Amino acid sequence: MADLSNLRAPEGSHRDTKRLGRGPGSGQGKTAGKGHKGSMARAGHTGPGGGKPGFEGGQMPLHRRLPKRGFTPLNRVEYQVVNLYQLEQLGDVTDVTPETLHAAGLVGHARRPVKVLGTGDITRKLNISAHSFSQSARQKIEGLGGTVQEIA
Fold this sequence. Notes:
It is a single chain. 15% of the residues lie in helices and 13% in strands. The chain is an alpha/beta fold. The protein has a domain of 71 residues: CATH 3.100.10.10.
């Protein structure tokens, strides 16, 4: 009776692997089906299109021809920039948030950080919520009696 201690594969279900390079009588002797010389006959590197990534046939590879430049800090924050003169285009809106800026088409994404810069002038009192403000923008907004609230 067969149980887990004496299981065997059924007869004929397992074929032996082809033994290459074992003499002329085997039919796969000498070059073992790899032909004569060339990169496809060698061990390791498997010829054109395969093998060593970036290898260009001895020509200096692209990743070594180009210069190494700079780095990107892990804690970098990329702000979406809005200037004061653009806030004048919002019409009669007094409470400005990233959502209202996105709805007006002044920023691309409502959830990415927004920075308000002081280029241009505003003519009315605004209550602005953004992630960051330049010093000149803060002075101009508060000078007209508006409020500045930084979103954490």
